[in-house]
Design goal:
The chain has 465 residues and is an alpha/beta fold. It has 2 domains: 198 residues, Maf protein, CATH 3.90.950; 227 residues, Rossmann fold (3-Layer(aba) Sandwich). The chain has 17 helices and 18 strands. The chain has an 8-stranded mixed beta sheet, with helices on both faces. It has a 6-stranded mixed beta sheet with strand order 2-1-3-4-5-6, with helices on both faces. It has a two-stranded antiparallel ribbon with strand order 11-12. Strand 7 and strand 8 form a beta hairpin. Helix 11 runs antiparallel to helix 17.
């Protein structure tokens, strides 16, 4: 947590109203005009507010912003931001453009309705000039509203909106400060920000993958994603109704072993899916914060090296706070009812039977497995070579702890745990830890264990460049 003074929503809105430079328009759809309301409430709103609008009727909204297939969507938000900003600049730039940084703030939200139990969420964004007479940049985020009542959701939405505008003007040079300020004035558990993206020439220095990392690190979300192009994506859009093949690991570095684990899992996974499901399936590599933290801090360069390597191999990357397997399974099941396969090693399978991973559950280990397999989740177990006994340990001959052997057999017999093969048994001789020792020692001995696509990233690690 950064060392900063936390301003109230009132103080932030007033500071913006009293600043003679920012001037903009507010367009809010779905949960009232709660953000704009703060600027009127604190007085001096004429210093900031050029216009407010809420086009609730779909026909009216389409007439202004164009047709939309989905009204609570990133594409709809983009249309709103662009339209409102362009209109503002066209009308006011000749009069005050040399002294003003224009902005449009927009949101499109699905808040709690009458007798409504569906998920509540929204897209918020600000399109702004960083200096007068310069092209605009954009900051966009996706928000989940976790309060039970419409009134509470509207209050939370208004505060996040003010926080976003204030951070856009005053905290944009510090990503950590920016992200942490988004939840100012709100107790934990009221909102979740699971996607944040900066764009535009003025933000060319921002790596949006670090935005995803910072959201997780600051506790604003349990997980965040970016695709093989390095573009941050919203989980619901990326995972919705798709079969998911997930590999958990540190990926420091990415090994040929990891690719074989995915390849072998894919071969088994495809047998339980139709051709259509196979085409829609997505392969995700997940890195938990436990695998990124060193002495309580994250090395951004190290993180980006791992991300670059996974992207070079065409993988979607998920960053999570979920050390426990049942938590990541629950997270994935939020977005899809299709099969989910989690690939893991024999070592991690053994870890699942340790009480430390279920210490916070009243039902202990049994409850953790119940949560893990609540939906269409399977564990795909990759073999391990025991160098002492020279035995190849698979899911089939794995010996669970004595008190859990019959339970383990039950999971095997019912297909919840499935064995997968190994393409090249020689790969089992090397681990990420052993490979890192080779890398740290210099030389090229590590190259036989690391896929060629990741060599450049490893060499960068060696040289520190």
């Amino acid at each position: 947590m950064s060392d900063r003074k936390i301003l109230s929503t009132y103080e932030k809105a007033l500071a913006l109203n009293l600043d003679p430079v920012p001037y903009g328009v507010f367009a809010e759809i779905g949960a009232g005009q709660e953000t704009a309301n703060w600027f009127f409430r604190v007085s001096a709103s004429a210093g900031t507010v050029a216009k407010t609008i809420s086009a609730y009727d779909m026909t009216m909204s389409d007439a202004i912003y164009g047709k939309a297939s989905r009204y609570v969507s990133q594409s709809r938000l983009s249309s709103m931001l662009e339209y409102e900003y362009d209109l503002l600049e066209k009308r006011l730039a000749p009069e005050r453009g040399k002294d003003t940084t224009f902005f449009s703030f927009c949101n499109t939200v699905r808040a709690r309705g009458y007798k409504d139990t569906a998920e509540c969420h929204g897209w918020l964004g600000v399109r702004l000039q960083l200096k007068p007479n310069t092209p605009p940049c954009e900051i966009v985020l996706h928000l989940r509203l976790l309060d039970e009542t419409n009134q509470d959701q509207m209050e939370a939405l208004g505060k996040v909106g003010v926080n976003l505008i204030h951070a856009a003007f005053y905290y944009r040079d510090s990503l950590q400060r920016f992200v942490e300020s988004l939840a100012d004035g709100l107790v934990g558990g009221r909102v979740e920000v699971d996607m944040l993206r900066f764009s535009g020439e003025g933000f060319r220095y921002v790596d949006n993958r670090l935005c995803a990392l910072q959201l997780v690190q600051s506790g604003l979300t349990d997980a965040a994603m970016f695709n093989e192009e390095g573009e941050v994506v919203q989980a619901a859009d990326a995972l919705y109704k798709r079969p998911i093949l997930l590999l958990r690991g540190s990926f420091k570095p990415v090994l040929k072993l990891h690719l074989d684990m995915i390849r072998q899992s894919r071969a088994v996974f495809s047998k339980v899916m139709t051709q259509e499901h196979q085409e829609r399936s997505i392969e995700v590599c997940e890195i938990s914060m436990n695998n990124l933290l060193r002495d309580g801090a994250v090395d951004h360069g190290d993180f980006l090296d791992r991300a670059d390597a996974l992207q070079a191999l065409g993988k979607t990357v998920l960053i999570s706070r979920s050390a426990e397997f049942h938590r990541i399974a629950t997270y994935l099941s939020r977005y899809t009812a299709e099969p989910i396969a989690i690939t893991l090693s024999i070592g991690l399978l053994n870890e699942l039977f340790k009480e430390k991973w279920s210490a916070n559950l009243a039902g202990g280990i049994l409850e953790s497995f119940g949560r893990l397999f609540k939906n269409r989740v399977q564990l795909f177990v990759y073999p391990w070579h025991n160098t002492q006994s020279m035995e190849l340990v698979t899911a089939e001959n794995f010996k669970a702890p004595e008190n859990w052997q019959f339970f383990y057999q039950h999971l095997m017999q019912n297909g919840r745990i499935r064995p997968i093969g190994v393409g090249d048994p020689g790969l089992l001789a090397m681990t990420s830890r052993k490979t890192m020792k080779l890398i740290d020692a210099g030389g090229t001995d590590w190259e036989q264990w690391v896929p060629e696509e990741a060599h450049q990233m490893v060499r960068r690690m060696q040289t520190g460049s």
